[in-house]
Write a structure and sequence with these properties.
The structure is a homodimer of 318-residue chains. The first copy, chain A, has 318 residues and is α/β, with parallel strands linked by helices. Helix content of chain A is 40%, strand content 19%. In chain A, the strands form four sheets. In chain A, strands 5-2-1-9-10-13-14 form a seven-stranded parallel sheet, sandwiched between helices. The first copy, chain A, has a three-stranded antiparallel sheet with strand order 7-6-8. In chain A, β13, α12 and β14 form a beta-alpha-beta unit. The interface between A and B is medium-sized, with 32 and 32 residues.
Chain lengths: 318, 318
C-alpha cells in the first residue's frame, strides 16, 4: 500500500509519523513544502523538511513540535556574541543539520539527494521528498510590508495580518521526478492537516504537481485531505487568521473549497460534523473522524482511519 | 609600547595573553599562523586564530588549550549521526565560530576582516592578524605519506614521523598590509614559544614577512624569540620529534639556529642555562628566564621579562 502524503510542518509531520507506524518500511513518501526554506548564517535551512525528518526519525522535540529533543543552545549563545541574528531559534543539533545539508549541497548534490542521505543516516524508513529542488519562496504581503516566510512566522511571531501570498520562483520551479513518481505510483494520496495556504499552497502552486494529482484521481487513485481547521481554529499556527484575512472562510469548509477539484474525500473533525453536507456539496465525500493527534497512538489511529476509508485493503494485506 | 608577536597555537596564545595583560589596549598585535587552516563540513576553520581568539577573549578551555571553556558537544553527536567525520573535535560554541567566520567570508570579506570583526565582538583589546588572506597550507611528508596539517596533527595524533615540510601556496601567498604594518610599526618584535616548523614556519616562509623583520631589525627594532623547547622537549605538541626527524637538533639551540639572522635576543628556560654560550655563538644574545606559563600570572611575568630585556621602557611609560 503506497501512500504519498503532501505535508508542511508540524501537523504534516505528525500524520506522516502515523502512516509510518502502520505501513511497511518504504511504503510512505512525504512530499514536503520548501516554500519556507531560507538561509541562516550562510547555511541552507529547510524548516519543514527538518520537522518531518526529526519526527520520522523519532528525534523531534515533542513539546515545541520543531527542533530536536534534548537539544542544547551553546552555539546560539556564541552566535549571539558574534552579533548574528538569533530570532530563528537554532539548537546545536539543529545547527548540525543545517551544516550537514549545506555541506552536501555545496558538494553539488540536490536538496532531494541531501534529504535522502540525511533521512537514511537517521534511520528513517520513509521517503522524504522536497517538493522541488528549485528555489521557491513564500512571500507574504502584510500590514507591515512584504515579509519572507520565516520573517513573518518566527521573527514577527505571526503578528502582522496577511493580505496576499505569493511564491517567488514558482513560474520556473519544477517538482522533482521523485515527487511526480511518488504521486503517479501512489495507491493513496493524502494532504496532511497542514496550513493550506503556506504549507500545502507552495507545493500545489507548481502546475505539474496539481496536474499529476488530477491525473492520478482520473486513474482511480483515492485522494484524501484532513482539515487543519477544527471548529474554526488551527491547532497550531496562523492558518485560521490567515484564511480569514485572505478572504477565505476560517473553517473546514473554507479549506475544502481550496482543495475542491483535487479531492475525493475530506476528513473533518468530530467537532465539525455539522459541515458534512456543505463539504459534500463541493463534490467530495466528507467523513467525520477524530483528527487531533495528541500522541503516537492517535497519529497511528488517524492514519489507519484514512486507510480504512479507501477500502480497508490495508489490514487484510498486512 | 607597540608589541608585535608572531604566534601559532597554544604556546603563542599564552604569551599573547601575557602581553595583553601588561600592555595598554591596542598595543599588542598578534600575527597568527594560517598554515593549519582547513575546511570542515564545508566551513572555513582557522585553528590557530581560534586558539588566540579564545585565549585573548578569556574564553579558552584552560585544560585542553584549544576550544571554548564549558563547550558542549551536541552538534558533533548529530554530525556523527549524519556520517560526518568527527576526529576534529568541534564543540558547539566552536562550531558557531566556524559558522560565523564562513558566513563573513561568503559575504566577501577577507579573513583579516572576519577575524577583526569576531575579535571585536568578543571584546578582545588586541589585534589578531592572520599572517595572510591567501591560501597557505602546511603539508607534511611523513612515513605514512603526505598529510595535510590537521590530518597529521589531530586525526593521526602526530604519530607518523615527519620527513619534510612544505607550504602549499607559499609562492603566491602574500602577507596582508596589516601584518607588514604591524612589523614596521612595532617597538618590539617577538616570536612566541610556538613550533618553529609548523607554527612560525609558514609565516616566515612568506618572503615579505622575513624581509620586513630584517628591515625592522636594521632600523633598531629589538627582535626576541622564546624557545618552545625546554631541556630538549616541547611542553606540548610534536615540535621536539619534528625537529629531530627533520634533521635539526631537538633543543633550544636547534631552534635558535632556525631563527639565526632574524633575532637579537633568544630567551631560553632556566633548564637550558648551559646553552647560553652556544646560542650566543650564533650572533644573538641569549638570556635565561622562567619560560613555562602555568597560569595567567606566569604569562604576564614572561611578557614583562621580555619587555624588561629591551630597555625596561615599559614600566616607566605606563
Amino acid at each position: 500500500m503506497k501512500v504519498t502524503l503532501l505535508a508542511g510542518g508540524v501537523g504534516g509531520a505528525k500524520l506522516a509519523h502515523g502512516f509510518q507506524q502502520v505501513l511497511d518500511p518504504g511504503e510512505l513518501s512525504v512530499i514536503v513544502n520548501v516554500g519556507d526554506d531560507t538561509e541562516l548564517y550562510g547555511l541552507a535551512v529547510s524548516p519543514d523538511i527538518d520537522t518531518v525528518l526529526y519526527t520520522l526519525a523519532g528525534a523531534a522535540n515533542a513539546e515545541t513540535g520543531w527542533g530536536v529533543a534534548g537539544d542544547t543552545w551553546t552555539a546560539l549563545a556564541m552566535l549571539a556574541r558574534y552579533h548574528e541574528e538569533t530570532w530563528f531559534r537554532v539548537g546545536d543539533a539543529d545547527l548540525a543539520t543545517h551544516v550537514r545539508r549545506s555541506h552536501i549541497l555545496r558538494d553539488g548534490a540536490s536538496l532531494t539527494d541531501a534529504t535522502a542521505q540525511m533521512a537514511t543516516a537517521l534511520g528513517v524508513p520513509s521517503r522524504i521528498l522536497p517538493a522541488s529542488n528549485d528555489r521557491l519562496r513564500t512571500i507574504l504581503a502584510t500590514d507591515e510590508g512584504e515579509l519572507a516566510f520565516q520573517d513573518y512566522f518566527v521573527r514577527r511571531g505571526q503578528e502582522p495580518e496577511v493580505r496576499a501570498v505569493g511564491f517567488d520562483g514558482v513560474e520556473a520551479a519544477r517538482p522533482t521526478q521523485q515527487v511526480l513518481a511518488a504521486i503517479h505510483e501512489a495507491d493513496l494520496l493524502v494532504i496532511a492537516p497542514s496550513n493550506p495556504i503556506v504549507s500545502i499552497g507552495p507545493t500545489l502552486a507548481m502546475r505539474d504537481i496539481r496536474e499529476a494529482i488530477i491525473v492520478a484521481g482520473e486513474a482511480g487513485t483515492p485522494r484524501v485531505a484532513v482539515s487543519p481547521i477544527i471548529a474554526g481554529r488551527a491547532l497550531k499556527g496562523p492558518a485560521d487568521r490567515m484564511l480569514a484575512s485572505l478572504g477565505h472562510e476560517s473553517s473546514a469548509l473554507g479549506v475544502a473549497r481550496i482543495y475542491a477539484g483535487i479531492l475525493d474525500w475530506f476528513v473533518i473533525d468530530e467537532a465539525d460534523a455539522a459541515l458534512v453536507h456543505d463539504v459534500e456539496a463541493l463534490g467530495m465525500r466528507a467523513v467525520v473522524r477524530q483528527t487531533v493527534m495528541h500522541d503516537d497512538q492517535e497519529r497511528a489511529h488517524l492514519a489507519t482511519a484514512i486507510l480504512d476509508l479507501v477500502g480497508g485493503a490495508v489490514s487484510s494485506s498486512r
